[in-house]
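Task card 7
Instruction: Convert sequence to structure tokens.
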Amino acid sequence: MTTHQHPLTGERLYLTDSGLETTLVFHEGMDLPCFAAFVLLKDETGTDRLRRYYQQHIDLALEYGFGFVMESVSWRASSDWGDKLGYTRDALAQANRQSIELLRDLRDKNQTRESPMVISGNLGPRGDGYRPDLLMTTDEATAYHTTQIGVLSEAGADVITALTLTNSDEAIGIVKAAQAINIPVIISFTVETDGRLPNGQSLHEAIETVDGATNNGPAYYMINCAHPSHFEDVLAPDASWLSRIQGIRANASCMSHAELDDSDTLDDGNPEELGRQYSELRSLLPNLKVVGGCCGTDHRHVDAIARQCRT
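Output:
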């Protein structure tokens, strides 16, 4: 039976990576169909490119003495997206396994006592991460995500992290699927410029709804794919629910999801300013432990975030 490492014990801060897909598409001119980075695992050239990307971020964690959360490239590697990309079920399962094997190799080569590394099996929403275009019941969400979670777990993921979720029902389904095989799970919601989820639900309500339906099932919550200016106003000082938020992976740009979707160019914002905003978020989020980037960010942003948050 697979033994899983419980995520983020102690007071240590952890880095994670940045906007993998936007880095590859906009900085390196790569074609990622359906925004799916896992397709690069099909050959050694693509795998080596992913290895270099991870190493660049791991080196920052080692330099600053942070832990590192290693997110697999499996955000799009669930069955609906696999169908769109022409993957058989067996080929998709193999891609998920390869995404974890790559991280296990990198951890073996880089982990130190000062920089422990957690391997996270990454899940994305069944539909579009920028809008709730495919709503499911919690049971439907459990059924949909169970297979991928099982493969990632058996391959050696320590935890499951579901990023860019747009509604609490899908989050509940993912948590229940992870609970069934006893692997820790992290839930990360995205929000619009008003600080609400794309389905209109408040962040506060979404977290309390998932906790209530799963007996506080998630190890913790995160916010990703939104700029700090989109959600800092809903982080009411001293609100008890804020203790459940332990991770931030923000966008570089202040633009809305709709504006980003329509843009043919990359708005990479200001890395130093973003780093300062993360430092300010630490005063609002008492348990913030995981910091990294999302769309539009790269190693420069993660470097600035690490420097601002280490003090």
